[in-house]
Please model this.
Amino acid sequence: MQKEAIYHRPKNNFAYPYNNETLHIKLQAKKGDLTSVSLIHGDPYDWEDHAWQSMKHPMTLTGSDSLFDYWDIAINPPYRRLRYGFLLEDKQEAFFYTEKGFYTEQPEDTNDYFSFPFLNGKDVFRAPEWVKDTIWYQIFPERFANGDPSIDPEESLPWGEFPPTPTNFFGGDFQGVMDHLNHLSKLGINGIYFTPFFKAHSNHKYDTIDYMEIDPQFGDKETFKKLVNACHERGIKIMLDAVFNHSGYHFEPFQDVLLNGENSRYRDWFHVRSFPIETEPLPSYDTFAFQPTMPKLNTENPEVREYLLNVGRYWVEEFDIDGWRLDVANEVDHAFWRDFRNEVKKVKPELYILGEIWHDSMPWLQGDQFDAVMNYPFTSAVLDHFAHKKIAADTMADRLTSLLHSYPANVNDVAFNLLGSHDTPRMLTLANENKDLVKLMYIMQLSFPGSPCIYYGDEIGMTGGADPGCRYCMIWDEEKQDKELFHFLQQLISLRKTHEAFGTAGSYELFTTSETITQFIKRTEKETLLFLLNNADSSSSVSIANFVQHRAKSLVSNQEFNDATVHLKPYGYEIISLI
Model:
């Protein structure tokens, strides 16, 4: 037995309350090493005749990646407290594994075991339930639709007649969004994520001048209220983008620092390393990256904290928004985010808080800061296999399995799953304009645990490279839209909404062993769905004999499979209901 590979700790993703009654417990072991794992558990105060009363329950192997097996169990301790260890078995030997190490016989002293002292309801990770069933649509306001030319910036160009640059404008606005809500409803969208629209100098608006004002190129507050109300009437949630890591160069407090230097009352609102202020060759103050136009805010300063917390409260109180997406969230101190959560959740307990973090995010996902993060590890795994052809299907499966076991299940349920955004090349461009590849990626996204997000225009086959190429004006000429791709995505969204196993409910198991065929199963008590995806330019046949108990039926074509083999076309797929 490879003892060095066995790992558990009674915290985070390895032991956590899933709800007020249920604990989830996980053990990690070397891939293929253990033949069985059982949980030895009992109440720490349950003794009879000087002997601790313990029980044994088998754990389930819920997934494997390239290095590890993951064993899980859900358990309901009757008194909400637990002492526990593990019985580990391989083909040759067996050991009891506890907090104190490995034993050949079960320890008698409960102090040797792992401890979950008490399942406090306050410690349960709770994100808004509605997020699990939300299909997001990201809108870059300047490029979605121009509904009111009278408020266009003076330098605005005719809609879509020129390629985007980092500095040009086309006049997208709130009225344009309202004019096209039918497009979103028809697709099946029930959540809009807006990139920033607060007053700013740039076209992307991540360089805020005034956090309390809407940039006039988009409309006024009254128009925004109408937009929010129109969306809510359609069952569409609204999430705004908060840029609290840094302000813009023209933010009034920073302008005061530029003017008054060390004597500015705002000097401690920023991280100034030396005076006088310099921007070249590198800024003499901390910034986002090395961008002199984006000075980093000092969120440890009490005045800054109160100012930004007031911003967070204001847009929820006054406009009834449903979520905040937090830009560059990992560079802001944890104490600020705890205060932010407390303040905005007081106003609207079901508000969704989404952080932009690209790497391991467990420190932010313990119930006291964010509800979710942008799931870039999912993005990179899917793109690396399907679009970039850098990794085989089994490697992608390893990465996704590891990802799912890196967080508690109730965290995975509300993860923000994206394939493209205003920061990345468009899906169709990454796939060398192979639409069939895009369809495969959409199947992965819409069926993965969490809440998927579609970047505006991807649903109609828009192309474009990295920023600014991914920010072309939305194409509204229907003759230039890919209607077939739109209807395909519409069908997937409908399947997700009508089949609970397609969405976030139930289990998710990848068992891919091929370089090009991705296979995974989603199960609930009511149904089991088998997904088969062929990332190759040649046909392939896949046996499903091990999965079919009675009959199998395609959700795509309604075809029933009379034998145990499924034939996949080049870049083809099947979604099969196992009955």
